[in-house]
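User: Last request for today: this protein with protoporphyrin IX containing FE, please.
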Amino acid sequence: MASYARQIPWPTGTALDLAGPQLAWPSSYRPALSTVASIVTGIIFTFLVYNAVVPEKSVLGNRTPSFHSELVKHLRRRWRAWAFLFDAPNIIQDGFNTSHGQPFEVLAPDSRYVFVSSPEHIKEVEMSPENVLSLYAASQQVLQPQYTMHGFNWYEKPTEGVGFVRALRTLLTNNLPEILPNLGVVVRKRFAELHKGHPIVNGVRHSPVARMITKTVVLANVISIFGKELAKNDAFMEAALTYTEELVVSAEIVRLVPKMFRPIIGGLISRRTKGHAVIWDSLLPIAQERCKERELASQGHAVPSHSDCIQWILESTSNKTSRTPQGIVHELMAIWFASVHPTSITITYALQDLCLHPEYTSPLRLEIERDYARFEKSGHGLPLLDSFIKESARLSPVEAQSTRRCALRPFSLSDGTKIDVGDWASTPTAAIMQSAEFYPEPMRFSGFRFVPQELLDSLDVSEPDEEARLKANPHQPSPSKLVDIDGSWYVWGAGRQTCPGRFYAAALAKVIVAQIISNYDLRLVDPEKPRWYTWRTTRVPREETLMVFTPRAE
Ligand code: HEM
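Assistant: Here's the final one, the structure of the complex with protoporphyrin IX containing FE:
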């Protein structure tokens, strides 16, 4: 700790001194003002240190004298809680390894998490009503939407009748056959444009793969969620990209400052960040227009028909708040955030895994040549590619935690473990997906692990040695798909509130990976370099990871 303190030079002088000469106070006021500023700075600093050391809800009980007698133990726990920010996947994995299926506790600076991994405990969590263990309350903590989503407050919304679940799970999924052929063309063009803009080093273009995929996903998602017109609006497209990044950083800052400062800091951030305002200003007139059309339609007038998520949400919402133009835009903003990052990251790691395991390229290309057109028309199929992306997501999951529920009322698991108000229950997704209990040779990459046995038997690879190797890799006793949900696959959460966008996400991942491997040979510039870092439970791809995409026609 001391060494960190030494590394960061603390500015000398008071807040007023640092503000510089533009504050032209009369000189007689200066000593007094300087003293006041020093006191205020001191109070803020003390609060920050206090917040770092003392949890909002101390696990040792309230802040009582007994706290002092257990100081060392307590400080160690707080140190571990702050380490969660940088090392959460390992901390969760350790808890999973030592708990042998029992619930275990992990502390973060701002929360206490209880991880459950046995099927019965997961069932208890997923069955608890939304007003006891709440996904919305957990999302509210993560996203701080009152500051990052134009004043959105999930608590004000009745949870039943939320339109986006039906809009995404049913209507977006059912429309995949209409959406996918256009997305294939858009993705191919966008990827080629981005590729052309990357610098040439030693005769080949070096592409920052994470950024490139995020930009491709943003375009695909704008078209699928908001419609083609908005994709032509440059200001909106720029905001659509920056908004999710702004949101993550802004919400994180708000989460880490003491509660009493959150409205001030959150308000400042909200005023300084522009992405959410551009999104709001662009979507609100459209939502207002659509609401007018709904009104006219209810009076028997002819109105234009629309086939996008704005319309599907409008048609799916039953509660009063969500039926207003503002309510619809808030839901769209929440969907937007949920749709971009996990999808881009999953695709980025799948492409990197293809570079690390190039023996899969030839059978995947064969499958794409044979079956891509059928997949586009139905939204189903490409089982080899499906399995490859699933294996990549198993070993490089975006999130080490899912099925996140924040307690709004005290809750007890059947073994007596208590989850108090403000604590979270969740599943250790990554640890379960890499457990030998569920996956033979769990840490070995086996791209076709999930395909049916007969498909594996009929695998046709031009190199007989490679074919034998692929067939000998570990294989699951029962086949499964990327979008499935079962007791060893919690990538999409669990129970009633599993990801409603997963059918679209899986289809888009297949479109993007298929378009890239059909049209380019790919390799990592430096396969040995670290490809991600972790922040809390998220495995974030490094922006500086470079790939070479060589057009196959050349
Ligand atoms: C690979 C990509 C994706 C992953 C891994 C993923 C994962 C998840 C998970 C785990 C949850 C549940 C939260 C939890 O239990 O902790 C969730 C919820 C949600 N996801 Fe996804 N998601 C992905 C893509 C998408 C896409 C593309 C959309 C929209 C088109 C979307 C929309 C949502 C929404 C709206 C919820 C909230 C559901 C509710 O409130 O009941 N997701 N997602």
